[in-house]
Write the C-alpha coordinates for this entry.
Amino acid sequence: MIDPSFWTDEEIVSWPFEARLFFLGLLNFADDEGRIIANPLKMKLQIFPNDPVAVGNLKTIISKKVLWYQVEGIEYGF
Protein backbone atom coordinates (compact mmCIF):
# COMPACT_ATOMS: atom_id res chain seq x y z
CA MET A 1 0.00 0.00 0.00
CA ILE A 2 1.21 3.49 -0.77
CA ASP A 3 1.08 5.83 2.21
CA PRO A 4 -1.19 8.78 1.34
CA SER A 5 1.53 11.20 2.48
CA PHE A 6 3.52 10.15 -0.60
CA TRP A 7 1.35 12.41 -2.77
CA THR A 8 2.05 15.54 -0.71
CA ASP A 9 5.61 14.95 0.52
CA GLU A 10 7.54 18.16 -0.22
CA GLU A 11 10.63 16.30 -1.46
CA ILE A 12 8.73 13.82 -3.62
CA VAL A 13 6.46 16.38 -5.32
CA SER A 14 9.58 18.24 -6.50
CA TRP A 15 10.74 15.17 -8.46
CA PRO A 16 9.96 14.68 -12.16
CA PHE A 17 7.16 12.27 -13.00
CA GLU A 18 9.59 9.49 -13.96
CA ALA A 19 11.34 9.68 -10.57
CA ARG A 20 8.05 9.35 -8.70
CA LEU A 21 7.08 6.34 -10.81
CA PHE A 22 10.55 4.84 -10.30
CA PHE A 23 10.24 5.22 -6.51
CA LEU A 24 6.85 3.48 -6.53
CA GLY A 25 8.24 0.75 -8.77
CA LEU A 26 11.04 0.12 -6.28
CA LEU A 27 8.42 -0.45 -3.58
CA ASN A 28 6.83 -3.08 -5.79
CA PHE A 29 10.05 -5.06 -6.27
CA ALA A 30 11.62 -4.61 -2.80
CA ASP A 31 11.64 -7.49 -0.32
CA ASP A 32 9.61 -7.44 2.90
CA GLU A 33 12.35 -5.47 4.67
CA GLY A 34 12.40 -2.81 1.93
CA ARG A 35 15.65 -3.87 0.19
CA ILE A 36 16.17 -4.14 -3.55
CA ILE A 37 19.14 -5.18 -5.64
CA ALA A 38 20.08 -1.96 -7.41
CA ASN A 39 21.24 -3.36 -10.73
CA PRO A 40 20.41 -0.53 -13.19
CA LEU A 41 19.54 -2.85 -16.09
CA LYS A 42 17.33 -5.07 -13.93
CA MET A 43 15.52 -2.06 -12.42
CA LYS A 44 15.03 -0.58 -15.90
CA LEU A 45 13.55 -3.83 -17.21
CA GLN A 46 11.29 -4.22 -14.17
CA ILE A 47 9.96 -0.67 -13.98
CA PHE A 48 10.45 0.88 -17.44
CA PRO A 49 10.71 -2.10 -19.84
CA ASN A 50 9.88 -0.18 -23.00
CA ASP A 51 10.65 3.42 -22.07
CA PRO A 52 13.79 5.49 -22.78
CA VAL A 53 14.51 6.26 -19.12
CA ALA A 54 17.97 6.67 -17.53
CA VAL A 55 17.71 4.79 -14.25
CA GLY A 56 21.07 6.13 -13.05
CA ASN A 57 19.76 9.68 -13.13
CA LEU A 58 16.61 8.65 -11.28
CA LYS A 59 18.67 6.96 -8.54
CA THR A 60 20.42 10.27 -7.95
CA ILE A 61 17.16 12.23 -7.82
CA ILE A 62 15.55 9.95 -5.20
CA SER A 63 18.69 9.54 -3.09
CA LYS A 64 17.21 11.60 -0.23
CA LYS A 65 14.55 8.90 0.21
CA VAL A 66 16.51 5.75 -0.74
CA LEU A 67 19.78 4.64 0.82
CA TRP A 68 22.04 3.17 -1.87
CA TYR A 69 24.83 0.93 -0.53
CA GLN A 70 27.14 -1.91 -1.55
CA VAL A 71 27.90 -5.27 0.02
CA GLU A 72 30.61 -7.43 -1.53
CA GLY A 73 30.40 -5.51 -4.81
CA ILE A 74 26.61 -5.76 -5.13
CA GLU A 75 24.63 -2.53 -4.95
CA TYR A 76 21.38 -2.41 -2.97
CA GLY A 77 18.74 0.16 -2.18
CA PHE A 78 16.81 0.50 1.07
The first strand starts at residue 36 and ends at 37. The chain is about 40% helix and 15% strand. The chain has a mean pLDDT of 95.
